[in-house]
Amino acid sequence: MRAAGQGPVLVAGGTGFVGRRLVAGLVEEGRDVRVMTRRPTQYPGPGEAVFGDVGEPSSLCAALDGCSSAYYLVHSLDRADFESCDARAAEAFGKHAAASGLEQIVYLGGLGDDSDDLSAHLRSRREVETLLADGGVPVTVLRAGIVVGHGGISWEITRQLVQHLPAMITPRWVRTRTQPIAVDDVVRYLIGVLDNQGAFARVFEIGGPDVLQYADMLKRVAALDGRTLPIVPVPLLTPGLWSRWLALVTDVDTRAGRNLIDSMVNEVIVTDHSIRAVVPFLPMTYDEAVKVALAERRGER
């Protein structure tokens, strides 16, 4: 059952990897979209650009005014103090969303078992879920693992390692299981839960059909490129040491990459499939998602 949802939809983080695709999808659906950005005069995409900065709570009132719902796709992984920054930002956003009368907030979080010793990154994602909801607006949470798509940090780490190295010496956690999902499918889920009362105040887990070890993901990307990639796990190669080496062979942001690498010790797979009843469709396989990402990088999509 759908809620009213007659006002504009605000997308906080609408210029990012997932956000810009989401904005385009919402506009194609005929939705009135506001893209919250710190530089609205420089925004070239669809929707209405409005000024807003989660680090400046006073800017949120005008951005949220008149909106019926909002997406929260903000994080500070490129900062050393990302946990405290993200906590303050989520608390402020939830408070101002309630004051503006929003009906729903949709948040893209991270998979991971709460009983596990979660990384700082995943613990922060859980905290953001709670802080957004503390304002009183119903929050719909979609928890995902690695999102495969051109320009995503996790995907770029994978692609560039495979592209630049003939073989890999890796930490043990390359045997950790994960459940990657195509960015296009993430967007389908994000749009599908909007104004959907069956999704209000609920947490969903989303993933593609393949449960893979990180090592398998790397090998499959290499195979799609027509070559093999020998992988040798080394027990003493810590995530910290490996992330510093990662900076030498990829161009991803060093701090953001380190925070993601730290999370790779945690198994991130879907254990609750309730999203299938709310937004039913068949997600892409990992190989299909990789092919789409590579085609987009080549400008073929």
Itemize the secondary structure elements and their pairings.
Elements: E1 9-12, H1 19-28, E2 33-37, E3 48-51, H2 60-64, E4 69-72, H3 82-99, E5 104-110, H4 120-133, E6 139-144, E7 147-148, H5 153-164, E8 168-170, E9 177-178, E10 181-182, H6 183-193, E11 203-205, E12 212-213, H7 214-224, E13 231-233, H8 239-249, H9 254-263, H10 275-278, H11 286-297
Parallel strand pairs: 1-2, 1-4, 2-3, 4-5, 5-6, 6-11, 7-10, 8-13
Antiparallel strand pairs: 9-12
Can you give keywords for this protein?
Rossmann fold; globular; two-stranded parallel ribbon; 7-stranded parallel β-sheet; 39% helix; 301 residues; alpha/beta
Structural class: alpha/beta
Question: Spans with pLDDT under 50 lasting ≥5 residues?
Answer: none
- Note the overall shape: globular
- CATH-level-4 superfamily name of the domain at 9-147 and 181-207 and 270-280: NAD(P)-binding Rossmann-like Domain
Number of helical regions: 11
Give the CA-CA distance, first to last residue.
Answer: 34 Å
CATH class of the domain at 9-147 and 181-207 and 270-280: Alpha Beta
CATH architectural category of the domain at 9-147 and 181-207 and 270-280: 3-Layer(aba) Sandwich
